[in-house]
Backbone:
């Protein structure tokens, strides 16, 4: 699923149930919570350079 979304070289681990539907739903939830580097910098009160370097 992650490769279809354009992600490569992803390592995952399933905790608890490994039911295919639950894994897909958890993956979608996780992808929806990804923050951009700019968002992380703003939340931490740092510059983008401080976050990326």
Residues:
């Amino acid at each position: 699923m992650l490769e279809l979304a354009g992600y490569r070289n992803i390592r995952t681990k399933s905790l608890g149930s490994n039911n295919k539907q639950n894994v897909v739903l958890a993956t979608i939830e996780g992808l929806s919570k990804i923050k951009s580097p700019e968002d992380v910098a703003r939340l931490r009160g740092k510059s983008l350079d401080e976050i990326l370097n």
In short: Residues 1 and 18 are 15 Å apart (CA to CA).
